[in-house]
Design goal:
heterodimer, A: DNA polymerase, domain 1, 2 domains, about 35% helix, B: about 750 residues, alpha+beta, Aldehyde Oxidoreductase, domain 4, 3 domains, 5-stranded mixed sheet, 28 strands
Chain lengths: ~170, ~750
């Protein structure tokens, strides 16, 4: 039995602990915003946060989540349903095309801004190059990150503050 | 020369009363030229139609129901803009639905119910509406999203006509109500106003009486100067759901009681299962069944990961085929031989014969020759192929993201020997399409597994399966000769290639070269081919525009200036080319180790010029900046068009820099993004897009950005390195070596 919090709510799963976290989230917990892209940590579509760190859930066993806080794209908005400033920046820059990679892109971008509130191009390249966008929206992603950073995302938004259970676990 | 599909307004327009009172208008279009169809499965007789329907209900909500899928191109929002503008509707009143549950649409009784509800259709209209729906039933097989066609065909001839016709009917209704002349009325923001008396009526109030008029098949369309919503920036409808994880892609379908399947198809196309030992796999926890599909083996389990693990335990022997001896090099050799022989023995088929090219070559001061090659390419959509299916007796349901839902319906029906009426396709968002999701293979597999299983099943291809069982952009070889006179005049252009698909005009050059011979031959391989973003333009754009720079050099001309000279009678081309050159700073000095290249490409009715800047560092090429100018006639959604240019450029850049599908012993070798790399954030250039609204016939957006990047890149690399890139991808070149060689020679 693996117990962890998913977007602040406690979850227990009695399945093979080697199951990649991706499939546990998508199939057992039925949150499908996190995507399967390659299964070998090369594309970033499956990116979620494990205790605030961006990880590739397709190669992370469920067992690694034991006692930890997992945040997915569905957990970014506030309890009142207000979008995370990164999500708002994504809308403002009209970033997504097909949209399939965007959950992973957004989770990587949120993790970046939580660690570096004003990333330069090199920092954006380093943090975001693990996320492939076949629609090629890299320029818009870069702009959206800078827009969100310009609006002091970290200063005004603390996802953990909206999520007391998660905060207590970190 | 044929364009990709010629559409006429032959066809029909019909009106009726919507449930609860309100107006419904249907527009159907007849496709005049079928050669644009890239999906052979839906090209039967030549009399199919493309349909759209528009509803206005009593609450004033305006909904367009359109048979086009959203794969990220933003077409649905642009189409809604076109409708709203011609109707003079309030933008916030206008919604959009993709033609739902397609069998409802294709079935007259259910379709009538969907559109009309329980409302009585006026007797006089019954034959028309019945006829219309009968046509819809036939027509929906042409529910294809491809060919960069949504906006310029459905939009121009369907949405705008429907919107303008609706507006006329609403005006008529108001004129009748107030007993005034139609000319005294004006429409704006979903309200009709009689200026003289100050009376107003909303579209909601007028809809049911407007529905009693017959729509005009030729309503007056607005001039560009009168556009209020077209050409303006509006936010795309689908974006919010794509930033919060709620957008449902095919892979997200949830069907009660479904199980999960992983699949491995025969590594060599044409091979089949010879023997199968599934005993070990069947013993694994969670495994329900191992299914032999003849040319593929699937494992069904309670979870996808379990199915994927168990699949490795299935021991399959595949039949030997003659394809087992094929590899990348043998195919290249075949291509070279086939085109050389066809050119030599005169068996090639001509696309273009212009002037006395034989004489021109014989008399030329200089004849330039070059052979260009591009590899097979995978689509590598972010969302691997997948489909969820349920088969219950004679009934089948499939949940999938399809560029061609009705084609899928017929293909699934054919494969399972079911009546198409009993097959329902539940359309989902597509995690990339690029042509790949016009092919129904995974949907057919899912349906076959579900039938075998007796319960619903979600089939997901692994990334390796997706790479190795694509329908590929073909590998192509193209040979050129150009005749150049002593004074630099370009006398003749000869080009022979293989693999002619669509669009027919892809190898045609816009330049005024008086003698031309463009011809092709067949050189089939066992790899399946299919539409890949911009289809044949993806290879010919590179071939012709890169070779053109070689010709310019031989002629002693600047490549931009030679293009200008040979486009003197094509002002629209010139404008696009000049705009890109000016914005990029063409002609400014270029530092050592840097290069600047240009290209011009006409495709899908749009003109695109690109200028690429590169830097050579450590033997590697970095792409710094791409300046792109496009004339698509008129940009309905300027930001959407810009996004499509950015997207098409990065897609083409990935292929030009890295893309290669290789074959050994008949099997595709690539498995994921380490051996099929694509452009990532760190190596993506700055892209500047400039839009020219010429007001000419509307062109496409989704594909025209792709073909021009590879040649502009190759031309820039030549300036930076002195190496002519005649073979893609660029990643196979070691520019360090070339530089050393040059130094030694110097």
């Amino acid at each position: 039995m693996i117990t962890f919090t998913l977007n602040g709510a406690e979850q227990s799963l009695d399945i093979d602990p080697n199951t990649p976290l991706l499939w546990a989230i998508r199939e057992n917990l039925q949150l499908t915003g996190t995507k399967f892209g390659c299964g070998v940590a090369q594309c970033g579509a499956c990116t979620v946060h494990l205790n605030g760190q961006a990880i590739r859930s397709c190669v992370t066993p469920l067992a690694a989540a034991q006692g930890s806080a997992v945040t997915t794209i569905e957990g970014l908005a506030s309890a009142e349903g207000v979008m995370h400033p990164i999500q708002e920046a994504w809308v403002a820059e009209q970033v997504p095309q097909c949209g399939y990679c965007q959950s992973g892109q957004i989770m990587s971008a949120v993790a970046l801004l939580e660690q570096n509130s004003n990333p330069d191009d090199a920092a954006i390249n380093a943090a975001m190059s693990g996320n492939i966008c076949r629609c090629g929206m890299y320029g818009r992603i870069r702009k959206a990150i800078k827009r969100a950073a310009g609006e002091s995302v970290v200063g005004v938004f603390d996802p953990k503050a909206n999520n007391p259970q998660e905060a207590s676990n970190v | 020369m044929s364009k990709l599909g010629k559409w006429s307004r032959r066809g029909f327009i019909a009106g009726g009363v919507v449930a609860g009172g309100g107006l419904v208008i249907g527009v159907a279009l007849r496709q005049g030229d079928r050669r644009g169809d890239v999906i052979s499965s839906v090209t039967t007789d030549g009399d199919e139609l493309l349909n759209i329907w528009v509803k206005i209900n009593e609450a004033g909500e305006i909904t367009a129901i359109v048979p086009h899928s959203e794969m990220g191109q933003g077409a649905q929002t642009a189409l809604a803009q076109m409708l709203a503008d011609e109707m003079d509707a309030k933008w916030s009143d206008v919604g959009f639905e993709e033609a739902p549950a397609t069998d409802d649409y294709a079935n007259w009784a259910l379709g009538k119910g969907f559109i009309l509800g329980d409302a009585a259709v006026p007797e006089a209209l019954v034959p028309t509406v019945d006829g219309a729906f009968y046509q819809v039933a036939k027509a929906m097989r042409l529910q294809i999203t491809g060919g960069s066609a949504s906006v310029r065909t459905t939009g121009l001839h369907g949405m705008r006509v429907a919107g303008a016709a609706a507006r006329e009917m609403l005006i008529k209704a108001a004129a009748g109500k107030w007993q005034v002349a139609e000319s005294e009325l004006s429409a704006s923001e979903s309200v009709i106003t009689h200026v003289a008396s100050g009376r107003t009526a909303t579209y909601a109030e007028l809809a049911s009486s407007a529905a009693l008029f017959s729509p005009s098949p030729t309503p007056k369309l607005k001039d560009i100067a009168d556009f209020k919503i077209m050409g303006k920036h509006v936010e795309r409808h689908d974006i919010p759901s794509k930033v919060d994880g709620t957008a449902e892609f095919g892979i997200d379908a949830q069907v009660p009681g479904m199980q999960y399947a992983a699949i491995k198809a025969a590594p060599v196309f044409g091979s089949a299962v010879a023997s199968i030992d599934s005993s070990k796999a069947e013993q694994r926890a969670g495994v329900t069944q191992v299914v032999n599909l003849g040319d593929a083996v699937a494992v069904v389990a309670s979870g996808y990961w379990l199915a994927e693990q168990a699949l490795k335990d299935v021991n399959v022997k595949w039949t030997k085929t003659s394809n087992d001896a094929v590899n990348t090099e043998s195919m290249r050799e075949q291509f070279r031989n086939d085109i050389t022989n066809a050119a030599a023995d005169g068996s090639s088929t001509s696309d273009v014969e212009l002037g006395d090219f034989t004489k021109a070559f014989a008399s030329a001061e200089r004849v330039l020759e070059a052979t260009y090659e591009v590899p097979f390419l995978a689509h590598a959509c972010m969302e691997p192929m997948n489909a969820t299916a349920s088969v219950n007796g004679e009934m089948c349901e499939v949940w999938v993201g399809a560029q061609n839902p009705m084609g899928f319906r017929y293909e699934v029906a054919t494969a399972l020997e079911l009546d198409p009426e009993n097959v329902t396709i539940h359309q989902h968002f597509m995690g990339g399409g690029f042509g790949r999701r016009s092919i129904a293979d995974s949907a057919i597999q899912a349906a076959m597994i579900a039938r075998e299983l007796g319960t619903p099943v979600k089939l997901i291809w692994s990334r390796a399966e997706d790479m190795q069982h694509d329908i590929y952009r073909p590998g192509v070889t193209s040979k050129f000769r150009a005749a150049v006179a002593a004074n630099g005049e370009v006398l003749a252009w000869d080009n022979v290639y293989h693999e002619k698909h669509e669009p027919a005009e892809a190898p045609v050059i816009p330049y005024a070269i008086t003698a031309q011979h463009i011809h092709h031959t067949d050189s089939p391989t066992h790899l399946p081919f299919g539409p890949w973003r911009s289809v044949d333009h993806s290879q010919h754009g590179f071939f012709t525009e890169a070779f053109f720079d070689e010709v310019a050099e031989a002629a002693g001309e600047d490549p931009y200036q030679l293009r200008r000279k040979l486009l003197a009678d094509k002002p629209r081309h010139l404008k696009v080319l000049d705009l890109a050159a000016e914005k990029a700073g063409w002609g400014e000095p270029i530092a050592e180790g840097k290069g600047r290249g240009i290209s011009l490409q006409e495709s899908f009715g749009s003109l695109v010029a690109q200028v690429v800047d590169v830097t050579l560092a450590g033997g590697k090429i970095g792409v710094d900046r791409v300046v792109c100018a496009i004339d698509a006639g008129f940009a309905v959604s300027p930001d959407g068009l810009t996004a499509q240019m950015e997207s098409g450029i990065i897609y083409g850049l990935s292929a030009a820099m890295y893309g290669e599908v290789s074959v050994e012993n008949g099997a595709v070798q690539q498995t994921a993004f380490h051996d099929y790399p694509v452009t990532r954030m760190a190596d993506s250039p700055v892209i500047e897009t400039y839009i020219l609204d010429s007001g000419e016939a509307m062109g496409g957006a989704g594909e025209p950005g792709t073909p021009g990047i590879a040649p502009a890149l190759a031309n820039a690399i030549y300036q930076a390195t002195g190496t002519r890139v005649r073979k893609l991808p660029v990643s196979q070149y070691d520019f360090n070596y070339r530089i050393e060689e040059t130094e030694e020679l110097g």
